[in-house]
Amino acid sequence: MANAWVITKVEPGQKQQADDLVAMAFASLRQYYVPCGECGELPSKPRCLIIKKRGEVVGTLSYYFDSPYVRLYRIAVRIDCRRQGVARSLIEYVDKYVAGPRGDELALYAVKETGNVEIFEKLGFAVQSESVAQFAKSPTGGEVYEVEMVRRRG
What is 5-151's CATH superfamily? Predict the structure, then answer.
């Protein structure tokens, strides 16, 4: 049975809803890392998608163009909707309708300590590099590692 999910661009009136979902989803990651300063410069006009199930926002994903990549970030899924293919659906949407027509590959950064690297590997991403994160630290003040991942075409 097909999922009754609808993926759309975030309209101005939905931005706060997407931001709230990101804050809620990322709160569970704070046991592994906390931001410390800026995450680096993001583009002035990133694109943001939401995914709805029965009219409720259950996930969001932002992306920007960084040729030859479409870089994904702020991938967030409502806690009660995790492990149901929400993030996969958002990533597949960007791959098919955004990156695919341009011939770009998908890329993202993940914090190693969260366990998300393994999740993204299951979604077809491969580790490209690993380095000490400049934008985050562990809750005790120690280092955490940022992993760059790419999903290759064909």
Answer: Gcn5-related N-acetyltransferase (GNAT) (3.40.630.30)
